[in-house]
What does this fold into?
Amino acid sequence: MKKQDFSYDLPEELIAQDPIEDRSGSRLMVLDKVTGNLEHKIFRDIIDYLHEGDCLVLNNTKVIPARLIGEKKNTGGRVELLLLKRKENNIWETLAKPGKSARVGQRLVFGDGLLEAEVLETNQEGNRFVKFYYEGIFEEILDQLGQMPLPPYITHELKDKNRYQTVYAKHEGSAAAPTAGLHFTDDLLRHIEEKGVTIANVTLHVGLGTFRPVKEDNILEHHMHSEFYQISKEEADKINNAKKKGGRIICVGTTSCRTIESAANEDGQVVAGSKDTDIFIYPGYKFKVLDCLITNFHLPESTLIMLVSALAGRDNILNAYNTAVKERYRFFSFGDAMFIH
It folds into this structure.
């Protein structure tokens, strides 16, 4: 299987740079994974495709304002840190730009000294482990100084950082939003529950590896990034009970999908717990739990377009994407949505 098998032509002007005002007012393409049939709707119409007894699985991770812009303490040279993963207490794995400004032993200053950092070591991938020094509560300082780490294809400044959070975001730890969930409003979720749909919450902290391109021509040689997930027994029971009673398991986003597929045993039961997962889903994969998926439109040749191709078939997906281009859908994080059923 070659990465170019998952390519399509996307005009740059179709990459959504800003969120639309009404979260649930984006467009929704509905794809029948068996027939390949396409329908064109508005996102709030998703409720018409959800049935009593179904289970909607949300990823309730919360994006932290992980982009810090500061300077070297001794020279004043500009430096940028992107927080990737907390290792212990005040030590974080980070991405530093420019890398030469973050050599081991270098002290960095942010917010006129409100926050300082020392570079401890560099790993094989070139990421820096830094230790932060501050007075007070780290999360409050980060909220004051940090910026949202928007994807590299978004060049506009985000005016309201809450628009890069889902309305149900709860557990801080992501460097990127689970963007399929950005379309939901509190009202829409309430109406969905009133219809008899169970809502289950899982947590997967999204890493920047989600944007990393597949470099190998043979996709089987791609090294998948690792991300931390957590599922409580109560939420696992919701999913398992819905499945047992014949309801469909509908994941909101590829992160929710990867979480429950990682947590499932061979019998298709979701097992509660917390682990790191580097699951890579591509055509040929047999889904253990998931039946349907709500997702955005993904980058050409990405692991995410490979995942949706595993669910709906590569030909169906490429036809849907080419139709979306023709119909001028908006693509990627702030773009329109697709329901695969």
